[in-house]
Design goal:
- The complex is a heterodimer of chains A (523) and B (314).
- With 523 residues, chain A is an alpha+beta fold.
- Chain A folds into two domains: 239 residues, Periplasmic binding protein-like II (D-Maltodextrin-Binding Protein, domain 2, 3-Layer(aba) Sandwich), CATH 3.40.190; 210 residues, Dipeptide-binding Protein, domain 3 (Roll).
- In chain A, 32% of the residues lie in helices and 22% in strands.
- In chain A, the strands form four sheets. In chain A, strands 1, 8, 9, 10, 11, 12, 13, 14, 15, 16, 17 and 18 form a twelve-stranded mixed sheet that branches.
- Chain A is globular and about 70 Å long.
- Chain B starts with a helix and ends with a helix.
- Classes of the chains: A alpha+beta (523), B mainly alpha (314).
- At the A-B interface, α1, α7 and α13 of A face α3, α4, α6, α8 and α9 of B.
């Protein structure tokens, strides 16, 4: 053995050297430090790759997040989510002729050099009405959109509609204004030239890696003060890069090392890691959305209002939200469908029904109803972990009062398909959030959940055809009270989203629709 | 040899038909619909129906299958619903990352794995053996996801030798590109190296007791020749098929590693496409993966025939 050992000595050394060489070659061939970025580049980490940069057609969030730096609409939401003119200079609604007249700002250049005119607006809005699902909220109310002058557009309505400006403002499937030539070239297919009037222009895209925009030198900003997405926009950085990084903790690591300056949609348990880092600050976006459970009201047992009321009476929202988010930094309990941050809409109507857990009352309501312990199928998903945790905690509370809940955990795409069919499920998990309660899909009889109710229809119709904001709010109070009495779905609370921003960044405000103009990066 | 190769090539066709039929049927049977995913929460039933019709999803399954096979016969993999471009270019966009990552991690796995396994076997029971085997057990037990996050914490956040994540294409410089893949390649390669080391060790131990080794030694051959010429060749035959499988696995995309390191490879493409129900891309990637495995198996068989004359005479 000893002789054999000696013989093997050189061989062993050879193998060790080879293995080490391999490690060295692959492991240490770099110069140190990845930190720091070019002075005038702002890098934002996004969770997925955008499928297209055609904001009119895609519902994908990242498409919008990149797109609204390139394109602009007639209106943009201000910090309180109110429509505020963007490409529009002045506008007017004539109740007698039921016509909106939009006067466009003069001399606004597109990134291809063409100057904005009414032809671009008509072509873009026609396409948007045809392709955007959000546009369908108002499409039926619009009779025609016509150019009445080089910079004037007239939109004739069938009836008064308070949702027109909301729809033109909403940043998802945005009513973006493209040059008429781009619209013509694309038809119903996604646009191929990414040209708008925004402060940044499209530069390049590397599939799965990053999308790069650069400052549009000829951008013509508004002069009014910035608020939310509205007002004056200035591209303070030369380049704006969106990097696709699917894993949340890796997005944060990139901010820590300085490779990225802004990251959002982080898991709430990363909060302490952010606060302990010397060069990163946490951001909390309020409000983000509200998680909900939507009942299938087209068949028993949830066609019976008493079963729905029993469901609500059984729930302790504090426990449920705490279970899902661990810290109340990331949620709030509130009976108002519109979160307190939507100041003009916030309402306490019906608050006596929300988060007053009363198992005895829940049992009594169940006993009075036609429910006989039949299994209740709750479609939920781990794609959004909080949806699953909420369903699980709620199911425990519901079982205690006599509901026979069966969680059916599937991927989110499966929920999308199964909920469209009226049988095979009783509840599904999702999350909602709209800047105008009149735009909420769950008020429709045809949306999955099928809330068929004449009184509700009358209230929604009144809400959407009342033009005066004060009068609308009164109708909304009434509708929200009716919501909590009828319980077509459950609001568990409002949830917030955690983000991280490098200390080198100034001017950034976390928001549901974050903006990257008026944001600068220190050298 | 020529006859053997021809026979093996003929057997490829039925091997490909099975995954083609399976993936198509399973996808259509699974719930979830690309039109619903694309249009989002606000879409009306009419819009969904319209989009389904324009994507051809309202056709009966057999006619959809016929259309797809027809396309395949024209070497056309179809059109991605999500990316709005041909599946072939979607796959090639993502395949270059996977290929580069595979080459790096495979080289690492084979060199470290085979060297470690041989060392452990030749010094069986000694400290080298113990260390290598402990490392190998840790390696095979490590979840890729967790290991990847720790590598990032150590080498990208703490000492900052490498970028945290992301991919730099070869066009932007060879070294920059390789540098962006070092951590993911380490993560993948070390885990596969652990498998190879364990396999190599047990194979070498078997071979060491073979009479031809005793003969070689009794002839007075230097140990270097005995190990590298006689033992290594015999070991190679035994571990070739496993190495082939590992290469196939790596080439079909490493999902967890690609997600952690934000690499736009085939694994991430496949997982994302399943979430989006982008049927043509899923079918295309699965077909490409099957082809890769078939090609590697063929290659391994041919190599067997080269290394071991008994195989080609069967």
């Amino acid at each position: 053995m000893r002789t054999e050992h000696k013989k093997n000595h050189r061989l062993r050394n050879g193998i060790i050297v080879l293995a080490l060489a391999c490690l060295v070659l692959t492991g240490c061939s770099s110069s140190p430090s990845n930190g720091g970025s070019a002075a005038s580049t702002l890098v934002v980490a996004i969770s997925a790759d955008p499928p297209t940069l055609d904001v009119q057609t895609s519902t994908t969030n990242v498409t919008q997040q990149i797109g609204y730096n390139i394109y602009e609409g007639l209106f943009a939401p201000d910090a309180n989510f109110k429509p505020s003119p963007m490409l529009v200079d002045t506008y007017h609604y004539d109740e007698a002729t039921k016509t909106y007249t939009f006067k466009l700002r003069a001399g606004v250049p597109f990134q291809n050099g063409h100057i904005l005119d009414s032809g671009d607006v008509v072509a873009s809005l026609d396409r948007w009405m045809k392709l955007s699902t959000y546009a369908q909220l108002v499409a039926a109310d619009i009779v025609s959109i016509k150019a009445t002058g080089k910079l004037t557009v007239a939109m004739k309505l069938k009836q008064d509609s308070a949702l027109i400006l909301t729809a033109l403002t909403f940043p998802n499937q945005q009513a973006a204004i493209y040059p008429a030539s781009v619209v013509k070239a694309a038809g119903d297919q996604p646009i191929k030239s990414f040209i708008g009037t925004g402060p940044f222009k499209f530069d390049s895209q590397q599939v799965g890696v990053e999308t790069t925009l650069s400052r549009f030198a000829d951008y013509k900003p508004r002069t009014d003060a910035p608020s939310g997405m509205a007002g004056k926009r200035v591209a303070d950085v030369d380049h704006l890069v969106f990097k696709s990084i699917p894993e949340a903790s890796v997005r944060l690591d990139n901010v820590t090392t300085g490779a990225v300056q802004i990251a959002d949609s982080l898991d709430s348990d990363l909060y302490s890691q952010i606060t302990s880092s010397a060069n990163v600050v946490p951001t909390v976006t309020k409000p983000y959305e509200w998680p909900t459970a939507i009942f299938n009201k087209s068949e028993p047992p949830f066609d019976d209002v008493k079963v729905r009321q029993a469901f609500l009476a059984a729930l302790n929202m504090g426990q449920i939200m705490q279970g899902a988010f661990s810290s109340d930094k990331f949620y709030q309990l509130d009976s108002s469908i519109m979160a307190p941050q939507f100041k003009e809409w916030w309402s306490d109507a019906g608050s006596q029904y929300y988060n007053h857990p009363d198992p005895a009352r829940a049992k009594q309501l169940l006993a009075e109803s036609g429910y006989h312990n039949q299994p209740i199928v709750w479609l939920t998903t781990r794609d959004y972990p909080y949806m699953y945790t909420i369903a699980e905690t709620a199911a425990q509370q519901l079982k205690a009062v006599g509901f026979n809940i069966k969680l059916d955990v599937v991927d989110f795409a499966t929920i999308g398909t199964r909920r469209a069919v009226k049988t095979g499920w009783n509840i599904f998990s999702t999350a909602l959030g709209d800047p105008d309660p009149g735009a909420d899909a769950y008020f429709s009889d045809t949306a999955p959940g099928w809330w068929v109710d004449a009184h509700k229809d009358a209230l929604v119709s009144k809400l959407n055809s009342t033009m005066d904001p004060t009068a609308r709010k009164k109708v909304w109070d009434e509708l929200q009270l009716y919501f909590w009495q009828q319980v077509p779905l459950i609001k568990f609370g409002d949830i917030f989203s955690l983000g991280a921003v490098s200390k080198t960044v100034s001017g950034y405000t976390p928001a549901l629709f974050p903006v990257y103009w008026n944001v600068s990066v220190k050298k | 040899m020529g006859h053997y190769m021809f026979k093996r090539l003929l057997l490829v066709l039925p091997t490909l038909v099975v995954p083609i039929v399976l993936i198509f049927t399973l996808l259509r049977l699974a719930p979830g619909d690309p039109a619903v995913v694309m249009l989002g929460d606000q879409a009306t039933a009419e819009q969904v129906a319209k989009l389904r019709a324009s994507l051809g999803l309202d056709q009966p399954i057999y006619s959809q299958f016929g259309d797809w096979v027809g396309q395949l016969l024209h070497l056309n993999l179809g059109h991605s619903i999500f990316f709005q471009q041909s599946v072939l270019s979607t796959i090639t966009d993502h395949a270059s990352v996977t290929l580069q990552l595979t080459l790096l991690s495979f080289a690492l796995a084979v060199v470290v794995g085979v060297a470690g396994g041989m060392l452990a076997a030749l010094y069986r029971g000694r400290i080298v053996d113990r260390v290598v085997m402990i490392l190998a057990i840790i390696g095979v037990s490590l979840p890729e996801f967790w290991f990847g996050l720790n590598l990032i914490f150590l080498f990208a956040v703490t000492v900052r030798w490498f970028p945290v994540s992301g991919y730099i294409p070869l066009a932007d410089g060879f070294f920059a590109s390789e540098r962006s893949l070092v951590l993911p390649a380490l993560c993948l390669g070390m885990i596969q190296a652990a498998f190879i080391a364990r396999l190599t060790r047990s194979t070498v131990l078997d071979v060491l007791t073979e009479p031809f080794v005793t003969t070689a030694r009794s002839k007075g051959l230097p140990e270097r020749i005995v190990v590298l010429k006689h033992i290594a060749r015999a070991v190679l035959v035994s571990i070739l098929s496993t190495i082939g499988v590992i290469l196939g696995l790596l080439l079909s995309g490493a999902v967890a590693v690609e997600v952690v390191f934000a690499l736009p490879g085939l694994g991430q493409l496949l997982v994302d496409s399943v979430g989006r129900r982008d049927y043509p891309v899923i079918q295309g990637v699965v077909l490409a993966t099957s082809l890769t495995f078939v090609a590697i198996n063929l290659l391994v068989d041919f190599l067997y025939a080269l290394v071991d004359p008994r195989v080609r005479y069967e």
